[in-house]
Write a structure and sequence with these properties.
- The complex is a heterodimer.
- Chain A has a single domain, classed as NAD(P)-binding Rossmann-like Domain (Rossmann fold, 3-Layer(aba) Sandwich), CATH 3.40.50.
- Helix content of chain A is 40%, strand content 16%.
- Chain A contains 9 helices and 12 strands.
- Chain A has a 6-stranded parallel sheet, sandwiched between helices. In chain A, strands 6-9 form a two-stranded parallel ribbon. In chain A, strands 7-12 form a two-stranded parallel sheet.
- Chain B has a single domain (2-174, 204-232, 268-284), classed as Rossmann fold.
- In chain B, 38% of the residues lie in helices and 17% in strands.
- Chain B has helices at 11-23, 50-57, 78-100, 137-156, 178-187, 207-219, 236-246, 273-279, 286-298, and strands at 2-6, 26-31, 39-40, 62-65, 106-110, 124-125, 159-165, 168-169, 193-195, 201-202, 205-206, 224-228, 234-235, 255-257, 269-270.
- In chain B, the strands form 5 sheets. Chain B has a 7-stranded parallel sheet with strand order 3-2-1-4-5-7-12, sandwiched between helices. In chain B, strands 6-15 form a two-stranded parallel ribbon.
- In chain B, helix 5 (178-187) packs across helix 7 (236-246), helix 5 packs across helix 9 and helix 7 (236-246) packs across helix 9.
- The chains are: A alpha/beta, B alpha/beta.
């Protein structure tokens, strides 16, 4: 199957290309250098790649360094890239040009968790500009599906980790510390839950969304296990061969447990994660040390 | 008390202006160049500069934000993107700048019932109902606008209220919509034509009632979500009959055209508890509202429709 995807030079885009080729698909990746989503010329440029009714996978987005601390200028960029950029991609796909569109969404569309296991029907009240713009991308995707009678899938993913990850957040920060021989720091009891998804599993979920022609709508995708902050810090030390416990510090933020159910993706996409977190972190640390 | 009113020269905007005038509330209109508003500016332009608006507006009690276009084509084309700037990007930019300069710390966002999305079955929709926009860009853009306002308010500390009008009718509305078509037919002595089986539920709001909620929310610096609905939910057939009665032609029997189905998702009604308890909201009896609109149509549907505000 021909698959045209945006965000080809990114962390997930790189893994997706490898995954698609391994599964026998023709993978056409477009990087942000050639496809400027902030400009209306993106519509005709992307359109020129849509012969033979391919599946389009839209990965490209702007992810601010700290989604909880954006300002008005960040919001402008988020709107331009994540919302209007998605609208431009979808405009190029109008008129029966594509057989399906798969969209990389985010767990940040949910906002404050109201249940211990978040399923796809959980209310969406994003707390960040980033989450709001990713949710708007979903809204326009669903509108496009209705108007164009085209199959669409949105995959709500947590932060994706694995070799090549550049986002400054908990897991890579812990691995960065242990790579330098330092102990990671856990605030409070470290019991806060965070979902994780290894990059090759994220790519596999996208491939399954492409291949499963009956699949449509919104799916949570993660490794399916609840991971506490303390567990991630301890695992970082374990894969680095360090003894002892993580350092501790006073809690600065109220406890927030975030854990998504992936039952729908298991049932409808046949998604089963391959990489357990310890193995994934081991590979990411090896990659950090290799540099 | 002063209000900054965006979309002031539009259908609802004119009703807001009329109400402000009647109540002695000073108001500054903001609308597109060439519309005659006190401040003419293109809020949908990528070059929109909120600084210039506040330089002219000065200190106000609240911003009543109504500027919007209703797009009926694609949800993703250039028109839809322009509307997104107008509906979702401009409101937080405008209020953040006003708040930063100490000129205004409150905004009323005139949103839409369309962001509740299609309901699986007829139900009463509360103002806190989860948002899942209907499949057109208008609801999606309004939903994004609300979310961005929520994030910006948490960050900057300004207050905001959101008002969700249902289908809006009254003097000044487009004449191709159901209610004016029913009224025109009845005024001409003809039976109004109703598409579908006539059972689709409507909860239309009279424009002056919506204007009341918007102005009250602004003057009181209210916070929260409020539905702007009609007197009560009626089927489209009942509305057509009421249109006949409003022009004194109860003898006319609306004709059903079942081959042409109505819009597929209107079948819902909306809870107005929050609006009633907070503002004493009491919608105009629909027969009186329809009579007012009929009077406007009989007068030739003049552009200065605000003079038909009761």
């Amino acid at each position: 199957m021909k698959v045209v995807f945006t965000g080809a030079s990114g962390h997930l885009g790189t893994a997706l290309r490898a995954c698609l080729e391994k599964r026998g698909h023709e993978a056409v990746g477009l990087t942000s250098k050639e496809l400027d989503l902030r400009d209306d010329t993106a519509v005709t440029y992307l359109g020129s790649f849509l012969k033979d009714r391919p599946v389009v996978v839209h990965l490209a987005a702007w992810h601010p360094p700290a989604t909880a601390a954006t300002d008005a200028l960040d919001r402008r960029r988020l709107l331009e890239v994540n919302v209007m950029g998605t609208m431009r991609v979808l405009e190029a796909c109008r008129g029966g040009q594509v057989s399906a569109v798969v969209y990389a969404s985010s767990f940040e569309v949910y906002g404050r968790p109201e249940s211990s296991r978040i399923d796809e029907d959980h209310p969406t009240r994003p707390l960040s500009d980033y989450g709001a713009t990713k949710l708007a991308g979903e809204d326009h995707l669903l509108a496009f599906s209705y108007e164009e009678s085209t199959r669409v899938v949105a995959l709500r993913m947590p932060a994706v980790y694995g070799p090549g990850e550049k986002t400054p957040r908990l897991l890579p920060s812990c691995l960065g510390k242990v790579a330098r021989g330092e102990r990671p720091v856990v605030e409070g009891d470290g019991g806060d839950l965070r979902d994780q998804l290894y990059v090759d599993d994220a790519a596999k979920a996208i491939a399954l969304a492409i291949e499963t022609e009956s699949a449509t709508g919104i799916f949570n995708v993660a490794d399916g296990e609840p991971h506490s902050v303390a567990e991630i810090a301890r695992l970082a030390m374990k894969v680095a061969g360090m003894g002892g416990d993580p350092a501790t510090a006073e809690r600065k933020k109220p406890r927030l447990d975030f854990h998504m159910s992936i039952a729908t993706a298991r049932r409808e996409l046949g998604f089963v994660p391959d990489i357990a977190i310890e193995e994934g972190m081991r590979r990411q640390l090896a990659s950090i040390r290799g540099k | 008390m002063r209000l900054l009113v965006t979309g002031s020269q539009g259908f609802v905007g004119r009703h807001v202006r009329a109400l402000c005038k009647k109540r002695g509330v000073e108001h500054i209109g903001v609308d597109r160049p060439g519309t005659g508003a006190e401040i003419e500016v293109d809020l949908a332009s990528p070059a929109f500069d909120p600084v210039a608006v506040w330089d002219k507006a000065g200190k106000v009690t609240s911003v009543v934000y109504m500027a919007a276009n209703i797009t009926r084509t694609s949800s993703v084309d250039a028109k839809a993107r322009s509307n997104l700037r107008l509906i979702a990007e401009a409101p937080p930019r405008l209020i953040e700048e006003g708040h930063l300069r100490g000129l205004c710390s409150h905004i009323v966002d005139c949103s839409t019932y369309k962001l509740y999305g299609p309901q699986k079955q007829p139900q009463i929709v509360a103002a806190t109902h989860p948002r899942r926009p209907d499949p057109y860009s208008y609801g999606s853009a309004k939903a994004l606008g609300e979310r961005l306002l929520a994030v910006a308010a948490a960050r900057s500390g300004f207050g905001y209220a959101v008002v969700h009008p249902t289908c809006i009718y009254g003097p000044g509305q487009h004449l191709h919509n159901a209610i004016p078509l029913f009224l025109k037919a009845a005024l001409a002595g003809e039976a109004p034509v109703v598409f579908g089986d006539g059972k689709s539920l409507r909860d239309d709001v009279f424009a002056p009632d919506l204007a009341f909620l918007l102005v009250e929310a602004g003057l009181r610096n209210a916070t929260g979500s409020f539905n702007a609905t009609g007197e009560k939910a009626r089927t489209i057939l009942e509305v057509a009959k009421l249109c006949c009665a409003a022009v004194g032609r109860s003898d006319l029997e609306p004709r059903l055209e079942e081959g042409k189905p109505p819009k597929w998702w209107i079948d819902q009604t909306f809870d107005q508890t929050a609006s009633r308890e907070t503002f004493g909201y009491a919608p105009t009896p629909q027969i009186d509202a329809l009579a007012t609109e009929a009077e406007w149509i009989r007068a030739g549907a003049p552009a200065d429709h605000e003079r038909f505000t009761p």
